[in-house]
Design brief:
The protein has 516 residues and is an all-alpha fold. It has helices at residues 2-5, 37-45, 57-63, 68-80, 86-156, 161-197, 204-229, 233-258, 260-288, 303-331, 336-374, 377-404, 406-411, 421-446, 450-475, 477-515, and strands spanning 8-10, 17-19, 29-30, 33-34. The protein has two domains: 2-69, no CATH class; 92-515, no CATH class. It contains 16 helices and four strands.
Length: 516
Amino acid sequence: MAILHQTLELCSWCDDYCLYGLWDACRHRKGNKALPHRQVHQGNWAGTGLISAVEDEDQYRMNSCANPVVGWLSRLRERYSPSGSLRWYALSGSIWSVIGSLVSRIFTLASAVVIARIIGKVGYGKWGLILQTVTLFGRFAIIGVVQTGTKHIAELRKTDPNRAGRSISLVLIFGLIFSLVMGVCCVVLAPTVAENLFGVSELAFPLALGGLMLVAMVMTQALQGALAGFMAFRSIASSNLVQGITLIALVWPLTANFGLVGVVVTMTLSWMGGGLFCLAVLIKQCHLYRIPLGFHGIWSERKILWNYTTPGMLIAVVMGPAMLLSQAIVAHIPSGLAGLGGFNAASRWRMVVLFVPIAVRRVTLSILSEMWGRRDYRRLVKALWTNVGMVGGVAFAVAVPVMLLSPWIMSMYGASFRSDWDLLVLLAAAAVFQAINDVVTQVAMCAEKVWWTFFIHVIWGAQLLGCTYLLVPFWGVRGLVWAWVATTIVHMLLNILAATVIIKRLSMVEKVQRDQ
């Protein structure tokens, strides 16, 4: 019995534990309605001798474990977070997402320190401009593709597998086409951007090479978004590990020998490694859920391009140029490139504050989308506000030590970076507000109100550019940071207002449903 227990695995189809190798037993359905988990297994395993002496598989799993510690943990988990419950999805998904994000951040920060020490503060400022430019073009596809894939897979993977297959196929094909178009634009516009916008003509070739990095980055994140819809967060964590190992293995030799070009090539290869891993896992997940992939019938789902992808792209049209132009304003002042070097180094640690919120955001979107598909508005609202409190608390807990240790953290990048410790303090504080904002924004995504989010981003972009233009001539790069802080707070308040309106409407709908 103890040996048999070790073969139990979490089944992706019925959201409970099944015997490894017998996943097909979970797929027996009557029409379009899946059989209850226990009914399926009792009906298909009866007479096999595998569990004939066990009345309840869940009780068997908890009582037959050879390791008493693991058995106690299993019973504790079943008591407070039973399989298939909202807490189970949130807990397991959050743990693996945090692990994946932690792996990614560690490798990213380590490679950033290596890059900064090899190419220096000015060179690191140039790399920041390249990264911002590539991210600018990539945002046109990333924002419109990643969350769209997550929402529709999470909402449809159980209720309508055929439609889920059409949706994810359309999203991935559109993402590939659009990323290729943006990559070509990056190559064509590289000389103009380098010379006229940044005033650094030597950045033309690295920027052009960044077109390949853009395609790899967009497709990898699109595939990870699809996996998040399957709640395959352990696989996403594994892809981050593959990407990080590739990054660390290549960053020193390529950067030392080829400078900025080597940095771009390293990032491109690391994204490609993670993307290939995600593609293999996605094919496996679609097979398990019997979700067909291909071109047939995908255009029938074209409305998602208007409701989700188009406003997502327009959000990128606002965000990307606003962020890039705000840094371009700093680049044109005396010592602006050196100031941007400190800003980019501090921004890396702002992402440390955000790594848990960003990881949990995928889990939240998957759960909220599934609740929305079931029209379970009460649990949707409960999950939202629980996540807001958790994310805000975690971000604050991480931001405080980062702010206290800011002088020593900035010194890791070199002696000239230490004087920019105050930039890290301000950006870490702003990250707490941004963490809350990112969670609240998902309400509009689930409620098909992405156009609301677009108009809020228009206000965000106008405020960021206006504040930067007014403050940078007096305070230099610190004017950019203060503009970022003010813009983040206003952005959060506007999204909270929008979420409140949507939630009140949901409450009215739920009340009408109860009355009927």
